[in-house]
Amino acid sequence: MQDIKVRLAPSPTGLFHIGSARTALFNWLVAKKYDGKFFVRIEDTDKERSKDEYMQSILDELKWIGLDHDDVSLQSNNIDRHRQVASEMLEKGLVYKCYLSAGEREKMRAENMKTGRALRSPWRNENNGLKIPENVEPSIRFRVHEGKTTLVDAILGETTIDNSTIEDFIILKPNGDPLYNFAVVVDDHDMEISHILRGSDHHTNSFKQALVYKSLNWEIPVLVHMPVILADDGKKMSKRTGGNTIQEIREMGILPTAFINYIVHLGWGYKDLEFMSTKEMIDLFEYTDINVSPAHWDGQKLLSFNAKYITQTDDDELVRLIVPILQDLLKKNSQETLLSLDDKLFLINIMPLLKVRAKTLVELANLILFYFVKGRLDIDEKNMKILYKSVKIGDTEDTVDSQFILKNVAEIIRSCSVLDEETIETKLNEFADKNGIKMRSISKFIYIALTFNEFGPPLYALITWLGKDRILNRITDLITIIDGK
């Protein structure tokens, strides 16, 4: 097989998004599988929309995902080369200088729409009798000849279109800046790119690029146009639609291992194998097996993937990952954010109980936030409504309120000389049986009192973590709040 060289060519005009991450992953897998090279070429020639922070986002997110690359380059550094090739093409008559104004272009396009033919500038003919306007720099247009253009794609197969549908497209602006369909060809050729893996939304552009390749007698790389990714609402995902950047994925508390294991299935899969190691992905991936049909983004499935990877992650690593999240949550609640070594050792010890209950790192941090809170946190409206609901006693019509239950729980805690899980479980179940109250109802009130939410770590464990004084203070505070409203 030829030397494999692939590239990711994102534009720094927005935050790095899911579609670009999938493109990066598939290119990276091809490079790794065939011992090839994976390049990152940042296409920053759109000076108005390109921003340094977006460029940094690309590099940061690739690092987070775990996709190493062989080189990073900026397309803007190649402008002199683009102009050189354009000049050579001009000498050969492959392109021409065009002085059409914006108004003239729009008028011609409107007329051409009626005939179904693409724009052909009158400046393409040398003997056009047109006078070159003064003080006007021309754009450089590609001279599209009559005939047909055929593309062969590893996924989409062979497609042929009539050249009459392709306009004489601009390759250089009047200021000398190159446009995409020209610059990308020059860069891919000079970098000796062997395979181009990108979204199928680029397939239409490929016909213009193929014309440039053929006019210069350059070999066209293997084309691999991957299916689009559809969002939950069935619309195409795009960095312009929002809600799908890698930054947002990270802020959700998704692990990079879970993320790549999920997105590798967006357009590809191997039999019924759902969870794969990176080595398995590299060994099993074949770009010729990528699906033609659109891929569907499923946020819930990503969460289920993440939950599995959280349970498989070492406890000390999870603590390292959630400490910054915990500190941020504490800061937002005006709490002390400094966690001691003892705090971190405590987290490591209890992590096996916590990680089986969380789908994200943020959920994991929220599960234990209550432990580090001094005083109390505000209880939201949903949980306050739970506290105001009466609880039935057995099969009777009689009920008790949350205050009754919480006061009795406080007495139980106060009566324990030692707080251990077995004693607490026994005493609370005795109280539940004696009063004909379901333990599930009692648990909800205790959770809200101690964790400020209706859920949390295993109930009897968290009681032993907090200790008698904090438990009694929180129950007393909550009863005061309930009585006062």
Describe the fold and architecture:
- The protein is mainly alpha-helical and 485 residues long.
- Among the domains are: 314-372, Helicase, Ruva Protein, domain 3, CATH 1.10.8; 381-483, Arc Repressor Mutant, subunit A (Orthogonal Bundle), CATH 1.10.10.
- Helix content is 48%, strand content 11%.
- It contains 19 helices and 14 strands.
- The strands form 6 sheets. The protein has a 3-stranded parallel β-sheet with strand order 1-2-3.
- β2, α2 (52-65) and β3 (71-74) form a beta-alpha-beta unit.
- It starts with a strand and ends with a helix.
- The model has no long low-confidence stretch (mean pLDDT 92).
Task: Give keywords.
485 residues, mainly alpha, Helicase, Ruva Protein, domain 3, three-stranded parallel sheet, three-stranded antiparallel sheet, 19 helices, 14 strands, 48% helix, 11% strand
